Amino acid sequence: MEKHDVHHVPHSREVRSFLMPRDPSVDRRFRPRPNKQQRLFDEVIMESDDNSSTDASDTESEYASTNYEDEGSSTEHSEVESGPQVFLRLRPVESPSKLYVVSDDGNVLITSAAPNENSSNNMNRMEKHYSFSSIFDSSVGQRDIYDKCVGPKIMEEECVTIMAYGTSGSGKTYTLLGDNAMAGVIPRALENIFTMYKNQLYTTPKVKLVNAHMLLLEDDVVLEELQARRQLLALCPDISAQYNRLHHAIQGDHEFVPLESEDVSVMIWVSFVEIYNELVYDLLTLPPKQASMSEPRRKNLKIVCNKGQVFIKGLTSIFVKSGEEAIKLLRLGQQRITYASTAVNANSSRSHCVFTVNVLKYHRSGMTTCSSYKFCDLAGSERVDKTGTIGSRLREAQRINTSLMVLGRCLDAASSTKKKNNADVIPYRDSKLTLLLQPALLGTERLAMIVTVTPLDKYFEENLNVLSFASIAKDIIFKKPIIKQHNTRYSGFAESNLPSAIRDMKRIEELEEQNYKLQAEIDQMNYQHVLQMQLLEEKLRKELTDRFQASLEMNIKQGEERLQKMLHMQSREFEAKMASVNRKHAEKVEDLEDKIEELKDEIEELKSPNSDIEIIDD
Ligand SMILES: Nc1ncnc2c1ncn2[C@@H]1O[C@H](COP(=O)(O)OP(=O)(O)OP(=O)(O)O)[C@@H](O)[C@H]1O
Questions:
Q1: What are the structural domain ranges in the chain?
Q2: Most exposed: 291, 379, 394, 463, by fewest CB within 10 Å?
């Protein structure tokens, strides 16, 4: 086993690469790092202030906001120097490898030198130390993971991206979603959010984040939103029994406290996307209007960067009134995710998924703020050479590995304090994933990464890559101000104090009720119409059948009569012929009888004694 000598000074600087990760135990002096922490991304801040846009520039909204002019957006900043929090979770396994040891303080993972046959890389054949914000061994459950990694961020009402990263089958999806018995981070966060804002929840979708802009919606748009939400929720699986169990278990695990403020109304929206083979798909699309099209068409969407804001153009965002509704939509989206069975996980996510919860708050002052929580379940990195992956699975794996590699490069660039005077210092545009997670990678929003590892010998090398990736993320120091919340002030909205807001709400509820009734009437009329059409069709069918039957019967009758006539004529002809033949025969018989009589007379004459004829006797 090759031992790492801490006093040995390498002659040249180590080459940085994500695929051949840096050895974190190499003397820090010889890592390609600056001597002191510098302010990063000044140039990127400038970029976000200018009017340039990537992909497409589309800030015009289909949503009317005419009466409520946006007086300008701003952001609530925190100037504190900070970096991402990186947590390590070890998956429970039957016989854990002895190659991984957690330090006494519980923050450093020490990997032993790999046995030669387990490593294709010399660098891996030495002891390494990886430090984390916290390490959770297999005994740590879902409750503690939430309390440590996510809960405080929700309480602070900050914009945050929670990212699960690890090899395939190491427990990323389990950590984020959990199972029926043990809820993961997302259901807990939803319960936390809905309990926190319990007294401020606004039941009408009056404010929406559209293309990264907060808009006050007109009544007709509100109705559309309510209709869309009703339609989509109707498609969701029924999880009420399961949800009740989950809800009680979560509330038993944590003590979420409702906020007291009365000056704010809160609206919560969720969206869910997957990035599959470098294409972005909406997992909450509405069903098609025509009933004939059973499956909603999967249309890939564009990620747009405009004025430093990143959003997905045309992404469905659904207004939710309870944790149950949000979890229902999460389950619906999950059913639409691309899963496949791989060598290491029978139900492996083949895409990166991002579930976003936007908490929009409008304050009595007229200020509207948004806290955005992004939960990102990354597809598992995979050794395509060892697992024998082929065909479409291989293509997927290559795409997954490439996008993870770009993510690694972005983190690497962010952790490198070597200042470069160009805006493209972080290559976040190189993959859809990094483009979408740009605010977290640039440090404008908080980033927490939960790294999952299966502590088995056979995954040793893959795990070292994951750990190196994590250690790169851990090194990042953002000096750019963290955006705590996005703010917008509306001039019209300032007047919308509570009484008028309540009036609005009542009016909207009335309209919704009316709309509901009209929809029911339309449904009833449609039903009647269909019924009438069916009856008419039936009547027409019967009429046609009757006519056809009558004409058929008439044709048969006419045919019979014709045949009867022909038969009669032929029999008369036959009778006449027979009569003539009989007559001829009778005449012949009469002639013959006459002849017989004549002959008889002649014979009598000859026999009489007076005859002159002498009879000679022998
Ligand atoms: N900490 C844990 N405790 C109990 N079971 C776990 C834990 N972590 C993972 N598992 C189980 O391991 C299996 C694989 O986990 P999971 O699907 O979360 O992996 P993954 O990292 O998301 O994989 P992929 O990237 O292939 O989708 C699941 O059956 C899950 O229940």
A1: 80-96+138-286+299-499, 529-596
A2: 291
